[in-house]
Amino acid sequence: MDKKRFSIQAAAALLQNANFRGFFTGKLYTGDFKRVCVPGLNCYSCPGAVGACPIGSLQSFLSAMRFRVPYYVLGLLLFFGALLGRAVCGFLCPFGWIQELLYLIPTPKKNRFRADRPLRTVKYAVLLIFALVLPFFIKLTPVFCKLICPAGTLAGVLLGLSDKLVQAQQGLLFAWKLLVLLLVLCACVIIWRPFCKYLCPLGAIYGFFNKLSVYRMRLDKERCVSCGACARACRMCLDPVKELNHAECIRCGDCARACPGRALHLGFHNDRLTQIFR
Q1: Are 5 and 253 in contact (CB under 8 A)?
Q2: What SS3 string covers the chain?
Q3: Bridge partners for 216 per DSSP
Q4: Phi–psi pair at 269, nearest 5 degrees
Q5: 274 φ, ψ to 5°?
Q6: pLDDT digits over 182-198, tens only?
Q7: pLDDT digit string (tens) for 107-143?
C-alpha cells in the first residue's frame, strides 16, 4: 500500500464529510458550501457531506421542471478532468477509498478474469442511460442516485441509524438499493475497486480526459526493458507500456513503483502545460 496516497484519500474523505455532528444527529449540512460540487462521488444526503456530488447535481439540472443547461457542473467536471483525469478517482473519491479498505480484508483475490474488459463498458451505459437520458425525461428524479448509487445508499444507512423518521420511510426501493450496495461491497473484498471499474458514471466521465490531463503518466522508453513488472503490479489490469494513460488508469502509481528501471513517472508534466498555455 502506498501510505502517501492512502493518507491523501483519508484526508479527502474527511474534508468532504466534515459535518461530523450529522453522523450523530441525522441533520444534513445545508450551508453555502453545499452548493459547491466536490470532485469525487460523495452523496449530498450523507450526514457528514459538506458539498454536493457532481453526478447528483448534473441530474438535478437535467431533471428540473424547466430545463437548464448545467454550465456550472460541466465547468467543474471539465476543470477537474483536464487537470487530474482519473486521478480524482485514485486520490479524492471517498467511495473509492472505502472500496480499497474493503480490499484489504484477507481473501482470495480475482482481478483478472475473462469478462473483466467487457464489463468495463457497463459504466458508459450507466452514464448515458441512468445519469443523462432518463433524468432528462423523468422530471424531478435523479435516476442514478435513486436506483443504483451505492454511495447514496450508504448515506441512507447512516441517516437511518441516526434518524428514526428516515428509517421508517425506507421501503422496497431502499431494499433494492441495499442489495446493490451489499453486492458491490462484497465484490470489493475480492476485486479491486469493482464499482470504479464497472459501474461508476463519474469515473467514465473522467476517463475521457486521461489522455489530455495535466496530471498523467509519462514513459521513458529508453529506460524501459519490457520486463512486464508494471503490468503485473497494475490492479486495474492494464499494461502501462502499451496502454499509457488509458481511460481505466486511476493514477494510483503502483506501476511506477514496481518499475525496476524507473521508466514510468506520474505527475504534472511540463510538456502538457506548455501545450495547453502555448
Answers
A1: yes
A2: CCHHHHHHHHHHHHHHCCCCCHHHHCCCCCCHHHHCECCCCCCCCCCCCCCECHHHHHHHHHCCCCCCCCHHHHHHHHHHHHHHCCHHHHHHCHHHHHHHHHHCCCCCCCCCCCCHHHHCCHHHHHHHHHHHHHHHHCCCCCHHHHHCCHHHHHHHHHHHHHCHHHHHCCCHHHHHHHHHHHHHHHHHHHCCCHHHHHCCHHHHHHHCCCCCCCEEEEECCCCCCCCCHHHHHCCCCCCCCCCCCCCCCCCCCHHHHHCCCCCEEEEECHHHHHHHHC
A3: 267
A4: -100, 135
A5: -65, -40
A6: 999 999 999 999 999 99
A7: 999 999 999 999 999 999 999 999 999 999 999 999 9
Confidence label for 271 from pLDDT (cuts 50, 70 and 90): low
Compute the distance between CA of residue 139 and CA of residue 64 in angstroms, rounded to an integer.
6
What is the spatial distance between Cα 126 and Cα 134, in angstroms, rounded to a whole number? 10
pTM of the model: 0.93
Task: Express each pLDDT in 12-49 by its tens digit.
Answer: 999 999 999 998 888 899 999 999 999 999 999 899 99
Cell 486521461 -> residue: 210
According to DSSP, the residues that pair with 37 across neighbouring strands are 52
